Amino acid sequence: MKQWDLADLQYAPEGQFLDRKRASIAPQRVAQYLSAFANTLGGTLVLGVEDDGTITGFKFPGSVSQATYLAVPATYLREQPEYQVERIPCVNFRGESDELLVFQVAPYPEGLVTLLEGSGYLRVNDETRKLTLTLLGELKQRWEKRESEREKRDVEMREES
Q1: Whole-number Å distance between alpha carbons of 65 and 109
Q2: Does an H or E element contain 128, and which?
Q3: Are 55 and 100 in contact (CB under 8 A)?
Q4: Most buried residue, 3, 57, 133, 151, by most Cβ within 10 Å?
Q5: Chain segment 113-130, per-residue pLDDT in tens
Q6: How many CA atoms lie less than 13 Å away from 57 in the CB half-sphere?
Q7: What PANTHER family does the database record attribute to this sequence (predicted)?
């Protein structure tokens, strides 16, 4: 697993590959970020850090449990992207021992990662954007066509051998 520099997790600019959220974000919103990173070039979601770099961690009032966040991919995502999660020990802004959760999401090469209710997301610079139904349908058709063509080539190659 990657060795994380706490200062980078706190202060690196948010953008295409990095976003930080307080540990009270709704689990479904976490699923949206995971979908967006998987549907683009991958990325890192840090839970327990404010946008300004303040570590609020998981001892902050109103925080969601780490177990709930760890269950997000299986609970909310239709497709399962490749990802890793790490708990990073830290000291929160109150001086208490705490942890951050860091989701490192790889690009999903097999199509689109959607939520169980059917929506999909893309990461565009420092924003997570919901795909429109029209665009989502077009992208799914392209992936299905590409997969069909790939399967056809594989059959032709086996027949030639």
Answers
A1: 30
A2: strand 127-130
A3: yes
A4: 57
A5: 999 998 999 998 999 999
A6: 15
A7: GLPR-RELATED TRANSCRIPTIONAL REPRESSOR, SCHLAFEN ALBA-2 DOMAIN-CONTAINING PROTEIN
